[in-house]
Specification:
mainly alpha, 488 residues, 24 helices, two-stranded antiparallel ribbon
């Protein structure tokens, strides 16, 4: 999975939206994958006859491979819908009815719906999780303006090799990494001294056996689980997950642009981003574990903490993910990070994502009872409906007798962002209100007020596509290409 996430991240950063956003697996795909795999359960022991007729245990379970082949085939077919969504400009058409209220609700619910993930990880040891929060807060906020001297080496023809010292505000840019390392070391010490009990999730596990069992190199390849297979139920389920992930990514793009200090993404950049996400999901189906990839919301929170929104940094991270996926022993090392540390990071990052969504409300008139009603009911339904969908009673309530349709409903209504955004979009476009009251005039002004068109071109124009469009002007008719070289 790491390998495919790294490859799709490079595609998105270099050729997609060109925003500093990581592509990763999403929880949206897990219910669909679990349903497909449950149809071909693995045998605990699988016996075959060898060449001498002896009964021996097989090293792999063919039923498991069949399930993975179904995941790959259904994901590959469903991902084509996302390619069509971006390639034919349908995302840009969707934005005609999406205003500041809907975007605010979408982004806020990304963080709010991930609260259960943060709680689950942090609750394994609240002390360590809160310590992580304290360290991140201390470094990123209280010590962010403190510069530390660091030695450097530079070379130029005029001056030759030069040694010196530069002052860098590392506590701001490296607050998450420094905090993670410090708390990780502390957990290691408390584990070595048996301060943590054996069942404490904050213990740093002994990875010597896992390190020995892990292979040095593994390269994913097409057909590694057999010929991809397709089923109606699996396709419908993955199609719903793909569409949900695409809508979530739109909110991620706006949040990432805001935190990175970039102008709001224009329609052609959104179309290109969704198109490349579809390509990424297809590649994950061809060579990966059969789980789709989408924008990684945690990455957006990290930008808000570290104030680092560089494409180069994300590209380096993507290369690191590829290395971790190919070299198994490195992946085992990072897997030893205790869950409560991750939970502490999530507590901070998801809070920042939620706050970014709330900040978009500045465009609308918050003294209007109309707007307060829409925002309140949309966010509340976006939180409550997914909570209900996780209960056993929900399965019985939506049972129609058609398993494919039931799966589609479960996936869509389990995404609070889709529920909240759909309600907000419907109410915002049907309840009477002036453009100024809805925030459309302020939002359009903010989106178009960037007089520096060179900045928009630098952020969102893809160089290779620009070169081809100059040679073949007809390409500018494509919805993921700027209409002109100076177009925003």
């Amino acid at each position: 999975m790491f390998t495919m996430c790294g490859i799709t991240t490079l595609l998105q950063v270099l050729f997609g939206t060109r925003l500093p956003i990581i592509q990763s697996g999403s929880w949206i795909f897990f219910p669909v994958a679990a349903g497909i795999l449950s149809q071909t359960p693995c045998e605990k022991e699988y016996h075959v006859l060898d060449s001498d007729g002896n009964n021996v245990t097989q090293s792999w379970d063919p039923n498991w491979h069949k399930g993975m082949a179904k995941l790959q085939g259904n994901l590959m077919l469903a991902s084509l819908a996302q390619v069509i969504l971006g390639g034919f400009g349908l995302v840009g058409l969707l934005l005609k009815v999406v205003g500041p209220i809907t975007i605010s609700v979408m982004i806020s619910l990304i963080g709010l719906n991930l609260a259960k993930v943060a709680k689950y990880q942090a609750s394994k040891n609240w002390g360590i999780a809160l310590l992580m929060v304290v360290f991140v807060t201390l470094l990123s906020e209280y010590l962010k303006n403190i510069a530390v001297p660091l030695p450097y080496i530079s070379y130029s023809r005029e001056e030759g090799l030069k040694f010196g010292v530069t002052w860098v505000k590392i506590f701001s840019t490296l607050s998450v990494i420094i905090s993670l390392v410090l708390v990780w070391i502390l957990c290691g010490i408390l584990t070595a001294t048996d301060t943590f009990k054996e069942d404490d999730q904050a213990r740093v596990g002994d990875i010597s056996k896992s390190m020995g069992d892990a292979t040095w190199f593994y390269f994913p390849y097409p057909g590694q689980f057999g010929t991809p297979q397709v089923s109606v139920g699996g396709f419908v389920g993955f199609l719903a997950a793909i569409l949900a992930g695409a809508i979530e990514s739109i909110g991620d793009y706006f949040a990432c642009a805001k935190l990175a200090g970039a102008p709001p993404p224009p329609k052609y950049a959104l179309n290109r981003g969704i198109l490349l996400e579809g390509v990424g999901c297809f590649l994950a189906g061809v060579c990966g574990p059969g789980l789709g990839v989408t924008s990684y919301s945690e990455n957006i929170g990290a930008i808000g903490l570290t104030k680092v929104g560089s494409r180069r940094v994300i590209c380096c991270s993507a290369i690191l993910m590829i290395i971790m996926g190919v070299i198994g022993k490195i992946g085992v090392l990072f897997a030893s990070i205790p869950s409560p540390i991750i939970g502490g990071m999530y507590m901070v990052m998801f809070g920042i994502v939620t706050a970014v969504g709330i900040s978009n409300l500045r465009f609308i008139d918050l003294t209007s009872s109309r707007n307060v009603f829409i925002v309140g009911i949309s966010i509340y339904f976006g939180v409550v409906v997914p909570m209900w969908m996780s209960e056993p009673s929900a399965a019985a309530a939506i049972a129609t007798g058609n398993s494919e349709f039931d799966q589609l409903v479960r996936v869509l209504f389990s995404s609070g962002m889709i529920v909240g955004a759909a309600i907000a979009c419907f109410l915002d476009n049907t309840i009477a209100g002036t453009k100024q009251e809805r925030g459309l005039t302020s939002y359009e002004f903010a989106a178009n007020s960037c007089a520096d068109k060179a900045l928009i071109k630098e952020v969102y124009h893809e160089p290779m596509m620009e070169f081809l469009a100059q040679k073949l002007p007809i390409l500018r008719k494509l919805p993921f290409v700027p209409k002109s070289e100076q177009a925003a």
